[in-house]
From TrEMBL:
GO terms for cellular component: extracellular region. It comes from Streptomyces sulfonofaciens. Residues 1-33 form the signal peptide. This is chitinase. GO terms for biological process: chitin catabolic process; polysaccharide catabolic process. CDD domains: ChiC_BD (cd12215), GH18_PF-ChiA-like (cd06543). It catalyses: Random endo-hydrolysis of N-acetyl-beta-D-glucosaminide (1->4)-beta-linkages in chitin and chitodextrins. It holds the Pfam family CBM_5_12. Its EC number is 3.2.1.14. InterPro entries: CBM5/12 (IPR003610), CBM_sf_5/12 (IPR036573), GH (IPR017853), GH18_Chitinase (IPR052750), Glyco_hydro18_cat (IPR001223), TAT_signal (IPR006311).
């Protein structure tokens, strides 16, 4: 991904000392009965260097599958893989093992990803760093057997795209691992995550896939990074660009794999978005409306994977800001993008070994501004044994304070949701989400709150629609403001093009 990595990762990569601690006989254990990924899967990237728990964020967000980024060597010339290139985070059950087993116990899984922007620009992507194909293959096998996973992702971009020797080594190693997996009866998929233009892969990205074909390495998913185009075409219609990029990839795959049917070609395609503002700036802003449009398109085409960079950005903690590792830069509810993409996961998957239900009674209520109301949050064991359920609530509008007591229950127990409103709360109807995160499952329930008699103001104009056509004088609401079109427009997001853009800001509402 074209993201600025954490300071620790950058410092680790900068301290390049050529070393050759190779892997020789790793990952040669017997095949395990790992559960294949669903035929269609939502698997957002998880930033593994943050110190966050992937199992906890998986449960909180509702994303049952994660793509975990990144695995790389500590220094150029090494053949030893580490999470984030940090020698303190080896490929072992002690590093993320408990989290991954928890996710798998819920019926989800993870996709470890090799490479990424930092590795691909510092020579620490393992196929760039290690010149021994057998040792590269052994590193892949170690990750597979350590975490009992069924897909590996290869994030290849920037400098790695032009390292033809590394590309060839990587595909030769993938072929070796696929032969090893087949001999042991192990399910294994390989995805390539690649930068794209709005009309498909550039020639160097396409060359990665062409080399795979030449080496007999099977590519199950070609995953496009549909953001950071840096082509100067401002502003971008991010949902439309996703579709034209994928159509271009489809045409390219048809040339590489002439024996595949249209359905099989679409089933090789993955899409990775960046929620909100990407690295290029506001001209490339992926909105919640874009997410809905892309979701519907992805379902209609039958693509394999939906993803975004990254789970830790799926919140509105920095509205009006730029791209960041911890927030989207736009106004949104926490996990709003995840909730749009969650239903995409479908196909065969294992049910959680321990599970629970989460409900609200009542599930809606009306309150006069300045007063409060409550609801009972109930849980029940639906499979296996009881587990601890950590509760949280999101989506409260300005002037409303939401609290839970207690904030943690054992499945089968209950808690109280209290909503206190101030006199300045805006009259209107709002949806709040109560999330329950257990060690083996995660669920949400929604509460519809109606506020009357408030002194605050709420946007009454229709929300801006990316697909609608507007003419001069039309008004919409967007990001808490009222906007008026100066002339004909469609697809131009209010607030992204400055004072000379089509939309005039009429102020907060």
């Amino acid at each position: 991904m074209r993201r600025i990595r954490s300071l620790r990762s950058l410092l680790t990569a900068a301290a390049v000392a050529v070393a050759g601690a190779g892997l020789t006989a790793l990952g040669t254990g017997p095949a395990q009965a790992a559960t294949p990924l669903p035929a269609h899967v939502f698997a957002p990237y998880f930033e593994a260097w943050t110190g966050d728990s992937p199992a906890a964020l998986s449960a909180q967000s509702g994303a049952e599958h994660l793509t975990m980024a990144f695995i790389q060597t500590e220094a150029a010339g090494s053949c030893t893989p580490y999470w984030n290139g940090d020698s303190g985070s080896p490929i072992s059950s002690a590093t993320f093992g408990d989290d991954i087993r928890t996710i798998q116990g819920r019926g989800g899984d993870v996709i470890p990803s090799f490479g990424g922007y930092t590795a691909d620009t510092t020579g620490t992507e393992i196929a760039d760093s290690c010149t021994d194909v057998g040792k590269i293959a052994a590193a892949y096998e170690k990750v597979i057997t350590t975490y009992d996973i069924t897909r590996l992702d290869m994030d290849v971009e920037v400098d790695s795209l032009d390292n033809t020797a590394g590309i060839d080594r990587r595909n030769k190693a993938i072929k070796q691992v696929q032969d090893w997996a087949a001999a042991g009866g192990r399910t294994l998929q390989v995805s390539y995550t690649l930068p794209t233009t709005t009309s498909g892969l550039a020639s160097n990205s396409l060359a990665v896939l062409r080399n795979a074909v030449q080496n007999g390495a099977r590519v199950d998913v070609a995953n496009l990074m549909t953001f950071d185009y840096y082509d100067g075409a401002d502003p971008h219609d991010m949902a439309k660009d996703t579709q034209t990029a994928a159509q271009g990839l489809y045409n390219q795959l048809a040339g590489l794999y002439p024996g595949k049917s249209p359905a099989q070609l679409w089933a090789m395609i993955g899409i990775t978005e960046m929620p909100g503002v990407d690295d290029y700036g506001p001209a490339e802003t992926f909105t919640l409306a874009d997410a809905t449009q892309v979701y519907n398109w992805a379902v209609s085409k039958g693509i394999n994977t939906l993803s975004f960079w990254a789970l830790q950005r799926d919140n509105g903690g920095c509205p009006g800001g730029g791209a960041g590792d911890g927030c989207s830069g736009i106004e949104q509810g926490t996990w709003a993008f995840s909730h749009i993409f969650e239903p995409f996961t479908s196909g065969t998957t294992a049910p959680p070994s321990n599970d629970f239900s989460l409900g609200l009674s009542p599930a809606s209520g009306s309150v006069t501004a300045g007063n409060s109301t409550t609801a009972r949050v109930s849980t029940a064991v639906t499979a296996g044994s009881a587990q601890t359920v950590n509760l949280s609530v999101s989506g409260a509008p300005s002037g409303v304070t939401a609290s839970l007591s207690p904030t943690s229950v054992t499945a089968g127990g209950s808690a109280t949701l209290t909503l206190r409103t101030s006199a300045s709360a805006a009259s209107g109807t709002y949806t709040l989400t109560v999330s329950g995160a257990g060690d083996k499952a995660g669920h949400t329930a929604t509460y519809t709150l109606t506020i009357t008699g408030g002194s605050g103001s709420q946007c009454t104009a229709a929300p801006w629609d990316a697909s609608a056509v507007y003419v001069g004088g039309d008004q919409v609401s967007h990001d808490g403001h009222r906007w008026q079109a100066k002339w004909w427009t469609t697809g131009e997001e209010p607030g992204t093009t400055g004072e000379w853009g089509v939309w005039q800001d009429l102020g907060a509402c």
